[in-house]
């Protein structure tokens, strides 16, 4: 008996171009992203993974138990198989519905309606006594703090296209990212330079990657979440009391601040909280006292560009606006890190594990056009040809999963170059062949545009190599 990932045919989290948030008026001035005045933000996505044993699906719990107790082992072909030394094979229950997991390496299906029942866990934060813009993060002990002269380094200009290269050394370490963030000391009107946060110039929000203001703040979660429109405030003054102001981190780091309370119908919210006094605080769901945390220490992921032009990998702002605004642009001959979270250590969406998601652009597309919400069918931004997802299962499986897939929004777009996964511990490598427009699992290639490929990484490093076909 063999256990196979149906995810060999697909990748996690493809974002749907479905209206989700209405635009917010910044300082009384209406801003528009398109002719009808709506902001088109991606819907929360749900990823499915199916564990298949012979002709039956089994649950993720059974698969993990099999790995943990030795009844299942990984084969050289990238599939799980029953162990020859284990006491017995796992039971094969009657076919059940597909198990859900928001993890890389699985079929993704956008859910534009967001009408999901609230999960039982985690426990919601208690309702605040005041109805007017109650703070979600723990307030500072000083009711009206004054900014410390040395609380924040001097303001710096907006990031250049390769600012991440100046923040991260050759080993993937960011010294700025180790600095503890001073709660309640920096005004919401100032971007928090010097603490690892990577300011973004593309969005026209003073360095912020997105600004969200939940108008509904109940014990069951947030709702009626307004999102500040791109180019509304280049000075950053749209980050106002009650808002969550999101920021990027240089890869391989991930944002550490987001509220424990999330959207009650599946929306995600992330960033620093602007308290009622107009100062920035780590949100109450923070996973560190620093703005950024490093990805998995057990598996690094890099992108190596062997092409003649630059390529931008654009990571989604998640949890947050879910737009693809966090850039890694690698020039010819360059290598850059990609963020790769440990599944048990990072953000959980409705109790489910999450992965890092990237939109892979054609070579030569400028970063300010590649890593932003784009126009329909222009082949860049959220309409780029290919998506990439990655994470490390730091539970019983102790291995990583990285995937490639055609962007479901634009199946006629072509990437124009090859992608190959390399690494000593990569099982059944995943690759894209530009000459035939096929995604291949090892030597098996498919013409099915709904299929993708997923590689298991037993330990160590993965390099995503870009080359001419």
From TrEMBL:
Can you name a GO cellular component term?
Answer: cell surface
One GO molecular function term of this record is: hydrolase activity, acting on glycosyl bonds
A Pfam family the protein falls into: SUN
An annotated GO BP: fungal-type cell wall organization
- The UniProt regions of compositional bias labelled Low complexity, in chain numbering, are 131-141
The record's subcellular location field reads: Secreted, Cell wall
Q: Report if keyword Hydrolase is assigned.
A: yes
Q: Where is the signal peptide?
A: 1-17
Tell me which domain of life the UniProt entry assigns to the organism this sequence originates from.
Answer: Eukaryota
Keyword Cell wall biogenesis/degradation assigned to the entry: answer is: yes
**Which keywords are on file for this protein?**
Carbohydrate metabolism, Cell wall, Cell wall biogenesis/degradation, Glycosidase, Hydrolase, Polysaccharide degradation, Secreted, Signal
Report the family membership.
Belongs to the SUN family.
Query: In its UniProt entry, what is this protein called?
Result: SUN-domain-containing protein
This chain's source organism reads Clathrospora elynae
């Amino acid at each position: 008996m063999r256990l196979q990932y149906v995810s060999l045919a697909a990748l996690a989290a493809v974002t749907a171009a479905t209206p989700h948030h209405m635009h917010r008026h910044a300082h009384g001035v209406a801003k528009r992203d398109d002719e009808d005045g709506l902001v088109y933000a991606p819907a929360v996505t749900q990823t499915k993974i199916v564990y298949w044993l012979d002709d039956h699906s089994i649950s993720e719990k059974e698969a993990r138990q099999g790995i943990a107790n030795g009844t299942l082992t990984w084969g050289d072909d990238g599939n799980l198989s029953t162990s020859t030394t284990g006491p017995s094979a796992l039971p094969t229950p009657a076919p059940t519905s597909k198990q859900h997991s928001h993890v890389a390496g699985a079929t993704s299906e956008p859910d534009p309606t967001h009408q999901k029942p609230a999960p039982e866990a985690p426990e919601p934060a208690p309702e605040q006594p005041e109805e007017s813009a109650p703070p979600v993060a723990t307030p500072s002990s000083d009711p009206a703090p004054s900014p410390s002269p040395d609380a924040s380094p001097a303001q710096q200009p907006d990031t250049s296209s390769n600012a991440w290269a100046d923040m991260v050394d050759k080993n993937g370490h960011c010294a700025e990212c180790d600095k503890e963030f001073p709660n309640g000391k920096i005004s919401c009107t100032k971007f928090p330079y010097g603490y690892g946060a990577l300011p973004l110039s593309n969005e026209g929000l003073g360095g912020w990657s997105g600004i969200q203001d939940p108008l509904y703040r109940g014990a069951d979660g947030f709702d009626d979440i307004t999102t500040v429109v791109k180019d509304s405030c280049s000075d950053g003054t749209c980050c106002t009391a009650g808002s969550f102001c999101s920021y990027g981190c240089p890869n391989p780091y991930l944002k550490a601040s987001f509220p424990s309370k999330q959207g009650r119908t599946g929306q995600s919210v992330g960033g620093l909280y602007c308290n009622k006094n107009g100062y920035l605080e780590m949100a109450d769901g923070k996973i560190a006292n620093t703005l950024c945390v490093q990805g998995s220490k057990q598996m690094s992921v890099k992108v190596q560009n062997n092409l003649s032009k630059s390529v931008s990998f654009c990571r989604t702002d998640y949890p947050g606006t879910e737009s693809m605004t966090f850039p890694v642009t690698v020039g010819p001959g360059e290598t850059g890190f990609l963020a790769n979270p440990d599944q048990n250590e990072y953000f959980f969406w409705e109790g489910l594990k999450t992965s890092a998601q990237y939109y892979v652009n054609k070579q030569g597309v400028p970063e300010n056009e590649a890593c932003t919400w784009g126009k329909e069918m222009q082949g860049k931004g959220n309409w780029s040809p290919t998506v990439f997802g990655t994470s490390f299962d730091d539970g019983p499986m102790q291995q990583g999963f990285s995937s490639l897939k055609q962007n479901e929004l634009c199946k006629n777009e072509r990437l124009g170059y090859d992608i190959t996964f390399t690494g000593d511990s990569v099982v059944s490598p995943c690759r894209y062949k530009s000459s035939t427009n096929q995604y291949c699992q090892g030597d098996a290639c498919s013409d099915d545009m709904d299929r993708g490929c997923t590689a298991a990484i037993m330990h160590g490093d993965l390099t995503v190599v870009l080359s001419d076909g």
